[in-house]
UniProtKB/TrEMBL annotation:
Species name: Clostridium intestinale URNW
InterPro entries, sorted: 6-PGluconate_DH-like_C_sf, 6PGD_dom2, 6PGDH_NADP-bd, HIBADH-like_NADP-bd, HIBADH-related, NAD(P)-bd_dom_sf
Keywords: NAD, Oxidoreductase
SUPFAM superfamilies: 6-phosphogluconate dehydrogenase C-terminal domain-like, NAD(P)-binding Rossmann-fold domains
Entry annotation: catalytic residues: K174
Presence of keyword Oxidoreductase: yes
Domain of life: Bacteria
PANTHER family for this protein: 3-HYDROXYISOBUTYRATE DEHYDROGENASE-LIKE 1, MITOCHONDRIAL-RELATED (PTHR43060)
Stated name of the protein: 6-phosphogluconate dehydrogenase
UniProt family annotation: Belongs to the HIBADH-related family.
């Protein structure tokens, strides 16, 4: 990919800031915009260029990457009058890396194509650690030639990058990912609670079972935080609930019953009632340790 191409990045939160940093370190000119400018300050200090509006960023960038909070945020920044699709030039490639609705990804693709713009949906998995280390899993939906053109950017942010199909396929794959994680998180939390109540050394238990059939990303990366009482967000409870809700809506449409996911969402809903929606998903441990 031509290093002279200008990359715009919208959404410099917990994960976006690290992802954008890898692009900057990769030698690309980087334009940034975020709801709160302070979140982008470290990127600006490293050489990124702050843009006061999405429209200003869209007019200048050749590739625009977005990773924001919720589907309504995605809809807002892409379709409003001063948003992305009404201000970027023909030939621009837009990549939404937010975990969002497959139907919204398809709408962005169709409306972008009508304007001579290419679009990919590319949600990620790996949390704050994966974003920091450039080891995200990136699940992409869209056209092969567009995917291949921007693959160098994806490879700066992730180690597992796959094109799964047409527009929306990336989002559907991310739903499969979240379904697998949701039930697994219950198991990881319960295992750590059990070890504690049995009077075992949780760290030794973690090392032991982490090398066997119980191994998982959540066990390796989030169980240590549970043991230390670190419930700060690598991935917010409120965003996980958003993902589970999308997956349940898609499952209902496909007439699938996902009982494990329904249970997980009910437990995370209890965390919201306890005002823990801004904690990391590993805070489920606290609920199960009551």
């Amino acid at each position: 990919m031509d290093k002279d191409l200008i990359v715009g990045f919208i959404g410099t939160g917990v994960m976006g800031r690290s992802m954008a940093s890898h692009i900057l370190n990769g030698g690309y000119k980087l334009l940034v915009n975020n709801r709160t400018k302070e979140s982008a300050d470290t990127l600006v200090e490293k050489g990124a260029v702050w843009k006061d509006s999405i429209a200003d960023l869209a007019k200048e960038a050749d590739v625009i990457i977005t990773i924001v909070g919720y589907p309504n945020d995605v809809e807002n920044i892409y379709f409003r009058e001063d948003g992305i699709l009404n201000n970027c030039k023909k030939g621009t490639i837009v990549i939404d890396m937010t975990t969002s609705k497959p139907s919204l990804a398809q709408r962005i693709f169709n409306e972008a194509k009508a304007k001579g713009i290419s679009a990919l949906d590319a949600p990620v998995s790996g949390g704050d650690i994966g974003a920091r280390d450039g080891k995200l899993t990136i699940m992409v939906g869209g056209e092969k030639e567009v995917f291949e053109k921007v693959s160098p950017l994806f490879k700066l942010m992730g180690t597992s990058v796959n094109l799964l199909g047409a527009a929306g396929a990336g989002q559907h794959t991310k739903m499969s990912n979240q379904i697998a994680i949701a039930s697994n998180m219950i198991g990881v939390c319960e295992a750590m609670v059990y070890a504690k109540r049995a009077g075992l050394d949780p760290e030794k238990v973690l090392i032991t079972i982490g090398g066997g059939a119980a191994a998982s990303w959540s066990l390796s990366n989030l169980a240590p935080r549970m043991i230390k009482g670190d419930f700060e967000p690598g991935f917010y409870v409120k965003h996980f609930i958003k993902d589970m809700k999308i997956a349940l809506e898609e499952a209902e449409y496909m007439e699938i019953k996902l009982q494990g996911l329904e249970l997980a969402k009910s437990l995370y809903d209890e965390l919201v009632e306890d005002k823990k929606e801004n904690k990391g998903t590993q805070v489920l441990y606290e609920l199960l340790d009551k």
